[in-house]
Amino acid sequence: MVGEARDPESDAGPLDGLTVLDLSRVLVGPFCTMQLGDLGAEVIKVERPGQGDQTRTWVPPAFSKGAGGSGGSNESGDDNENDGSASAYYVSVNRNKRSIQLDLTTEAGRAVVRDLAREADVLVENFRVGKMAEWDLDYGDLVDENPGLVYCAISGYGEWGPDRDEPAYDIMMQARGGFMSFTGVEGGPPVRIGVALADVGAGMYATQAILAALLERELGDGRGQKIDVSLLDGQAAWTSYMATNYFASGEPPGRMGSKHPNIVPYRAFETADDYVVVACSSDRFWPPLCEALDRPDLLADERFEKNEGRVRNREALDRELEETFAALSTDEAVATLKEHDVPASRVRDVSEVFADPQIEARDMLAEAEHPTAGTVRFPGSPMHFSRTPTTVRRHPPALGEHTESVLREYGYGDGDIDELRGRGAIPE
């Protein structure tokens, strides 16, 4: 907790000592709670008996001991919880958590959640708006017994507004939030950004809000509060300079491929064998770019001297640069640009990204031993601290792997656990 003395030799994360009750599923909530787990919080993931998080069955691919060795890919498409494998999607956002099975459609299951919430610091849920209130598990139902609880509700549209009850999925949010209007090539169809950006973005905002609420709790009177995060709000916020460009000009931005509306040249150019990305982000890079490409004529052209002129004369400059880059291989282009200190890169796929010595040096490829699937690998945490490290302390859990151990920690004895089984709250 904030203000507590820490052992300088400890490997505990900065949120060590905090407990997070994770009632979320799929991506946005689990991404949030994974970050809290990476930061050292104790995360208890509540899952549906026999089914678990939906992403457990989103296969292929999956990690499996039986497919090409430990941690290989299972392409069978079978239910991974039954065959011992682990869905790659589930693995991606559920490390550093413990899994318990609870049927929240039963009163006995909901009573267990109330017991856990009584001692939790944070609760995260992403059910449809109104579902937690229907179960008497909303913030107002829990705060009297735990005034310090930070309760984060994540939904598609938020808890108020005309669309609060509508379903929401990432591709819908990328469309409705404006991103697909300016993503894709000029004159082409709308394109979804390749990762579920609406979910990941809202998950990041949820994490940020939770940390702010925890700090306010510590600096204030010890009370928590309810946080409301929506995917659509996150997308609207992330339109950033695209939105303010519109507010300033009155013209909604359109699809430009890899080009930038405010900076030229700042895009991917086709080479003789692939592509090179050039980021001439300030006027200081313009002379060395022309020198690297042996184009003194462009440097002498007054139209291109300043970025404003290059933006206004984008089409003319693009034609010249496209012709020049088309005569070079990608390796030649990258080498000469880097030699002249011009920001540039070829476009790499994921296999190349995680073979990068820089990524390796930053510990951005992590792995854990899964009890049934063998070695599972996933991107590491990008948060690096000088004293309180982020570490992979727990593998992404098997479904219900910690049900009994967690219940016993909260005072449930053998008879209590048997009773929960008899009432259908946990599986036999």
Give your account of this protein's structure.
With 428 residues, this protein is an alpha/beta fold. It folds into two domains: 280 residues, Rossmann fold; 81 residues, formyl-coa transferase, domain 3, CATH 3.30.1540.10. The chain contains 19 helices and 14 strands. The strands form four sheets. A six-stranded parallel beta sheet has the order 6-2-1-7-8-9, with helices on both faces. The longest helix has 23 residues.
What would CATH call the class of the largest domain?
Alpha Beta
Distance from N terminus to C terminus (CA atoms, Å) equals: 37 Å
Radius of gyration: 25 Å
- The CATH superfamily of the largest domain appears as Crotonobetainyl-coa:carnitine coa-transferase, domain 1
Largest sheet: 6 strands, parallel
Specify the structural class: alpha/beta
- Helical residue percent? 25-40%
Helix segment tally: 19
What's the count of strands? 14
Give the overall pLDDT as a whole number: 93
Oligomer: single chain
What general outline do the C-alpha atoms trace?
Answer: elongated
Low-pLDDT runs: 1-6, 68-79
Strand order of the largest sheet: 6-2-1-7-8-9
- Count of individual domains: 2
